Amino acid sequence: MNRRARVMFLVVQGVIALGLVACARTQVGFTSEESRITARWIEDVAAGLERQPGELRLRPATKEMTALAAILIHGTGPGRWTAVDPVEARRQRRKELDGLLAKGEILMDGEAGLVGPAPGLAEDQVLIVSAIADAENRDRRLIDALVLSCTQASGQAAETYLATAREERRIRDLTAGGRPGRRQR
Question: What is the pLDDT of residues 61-95, one digit of tens each?
């Protein structure tokens, strides 16, 4: 091989190597790790724990994760932010939900990660407790739908997100004194 051909061969190999490195660093699709991080961050914020928006800005991040982080967080001024509406609504409702879980007026509905009024409540209590449980369940489902649709998650990433979100919710509900049971329908 002459010198020119050898140089061209080395240049092509270098370009291919750089392309492979770039492709390896550019993740495609919402990953299982991103889904775990997202679920934990959302549930922490919904529970009123201090989390920072920058925790969702991963490096390297998929374009889906970058888009999701932009949707979940609203800047309200320099250094100030708030979470997207259903997460913020859950954060605002958390103390009341915790109180009802502790009193046994709201029960956990295991597999689905939802909550509902306990059987045997007085009619006026059922109306109040049902409204709170329904709002909580609506927001939990809305958040899940938002994450899965925004990231176009499917397969393992979607399963990981849902499993992590449900487990985080279960832990928080149990910590508040919640008990598993058949909720009133």
Answer: 788 888 887 777 765 555 656 667 888 899 999 99
Three-point CA angle 167, 169, 170, nearest 5°: 65
Residue 111: strand, helix, or coil: helix
- Structural domain containing residue 182: 31-185
Alpha-carbon gap, residue 162 to 146, rounded angstroms: 12
Q: How far apart are CA 176 and CA 154, in angstroms?
A: 32
Which stretches of 26-154 are DSSP H helices? 32-46, 63-72, 85-103, 123-151
pTM here?
0.77
Count other Cβ atoms within 10 Å, centred on residue 77.
Answer: 6
Structural domain count, the chain: 2
